[in-house]
Amino acid sequence: MATYKLFFLPGDGIGQEVMKEVEKIAAWTQSVGICSFEIERGLVGGSAYDAHGKAISDSDMELAMASDAVIFGAVGGPKWDSVPYDVRPEAGLLRLRKDLGLFANLRPAICYPALADASSLKREIVEGLDIMIVRELTGGVYFGEPKQIIDLGNGQKRGIDTQVYDTYEIERIGRVAFELARKRGNKVTSSEKRNVMKSGVLWNEVITALHKREFADVQLEHQLADALGMQLVRWPKQFDVIVTDNLFGDMLSDVASMLTGSLGMLPSASLGEVDPKTGKRKSMYEPVHGSAPDIAGKGLANPIAMIASFAMALRYSFGLGDAADRIEKAIADVLDQGLRTADIKGDAKETISTTQMGDAILAQLQKGA
Ligand code: NAD
Known about the structure:
The chain is an alpha/beta fold. The chain folds into two domains: 1-108 and 273-369, Isopropylmalate Dehydrogenase, CATH 3.40.718.10; 130-259, Isopropylmalate Dehydrogenase (3-Layer(aba) Sandwich). The protein has helices spanning 14-31, 46-52, 58-66, 89-99, 123-126, 167-182, 198-214, 225-234, 246-259, 304-316, 321-336, 354-368, and strands at residues 3-11, 36-41, 69-74, 104-110, 130-136, 148-151, 157-160, 187-192, 219-224, 241-244, 267-274, 281-287. The strands form two sheets. The chain has a ten-stranded mixed beta sheet, sandwiched between helices. Strands 6-7 form a two-stranded antiparallel sheet. It is globular, with a radius of gyration of 21 Å. The model has no long low-confidence stretch (mean pLDDT 95). Nicotinamide-adenine-dinucleotide (NAD) is lined by residues 14, 74-77, 90, 93, 263-264, 286, 289-295, 301-302, 305, 343.
């Protein structure tokens, strides 16, 4: 039985509550002999700042670097609103992404049939939806230089951000998208604004060449990012894998998140380069939501996004797709039974707590085990 190193970083607020539920699912994974884990636990965000004045300590960063997968809860909260900028809770998350070289952000948007009415779109548009948005995470306009505000001296200022992509950055994110598509619906939609942006022209060229060279068996289409935004809410089921840059990916994945009903349902994975020596890649799995200070400590948080993030770790870091399927099916079954946390209450008469939802998913897994 293979052993994998997991590093649990619960963080702050509901991050700590939902991580407890993942611990149960990890224990189940081991108990039925799927694999075994060596688990380390650390501090990140406000809780790390309280303990040692940093958003993540160097020793915890070392553990993250040595792990096979980081399982991350959420960071932040009003308690740390006035701490210095470089040690604010989010700095811990950004350091993890940067030091682990996590350039590919995978955000699935899955609409469980039982929750189709929780979406702001009509049931027939979203029911059974299963798309994957692959966002480039470490380049583009969020990082390009120059990035500054210049005083023009005439009462005017100029704000500058630079959108910049090199060939290798586009190729490696494209490769992630094509490889994923091969295991799903075999279709990639690449998105940029080549009609008005040079970086979009290059993006389009590089993805097209990569497709021709290495992935001709996968269907490829190109859509301008504005048109794709429109198509996402018009007929999202036309998509399988969408690959796009950091800025468009940020916006389009948030649009897609609304298709599925609640933030509490959305997992994500962030992946680094494959190490040619070991064949492994650095990775971090986290729910899309934040620390939700408004409900923290009340047992109201939905743990499904966190548990589904763990399922993604099994699938993408350890090649345990069957185990991931079982966890995702247990989630779907529990929803079919009508069990709901407050955020996905819909017309349900009663809601259950974070712990009860975790226990229900675990019980469903144990039934099928
Ligand atoms: P949020 O995601 O924490 O909460 C937004 C809304 O969704 C809130 O009403 C919250 O109660 C609800 N919600 C979120 N997750 C839920 C869940 N699992 N179950 C039920 N309801 C849920 O975003 P916010 O309120 O804008 O930010 C709160 C804090 O979290 C801030 O400090 C922010 O910086 C931080 N944040 C962290 C991350 C991260 O750690 N990756 C992401 C986003 C925000």
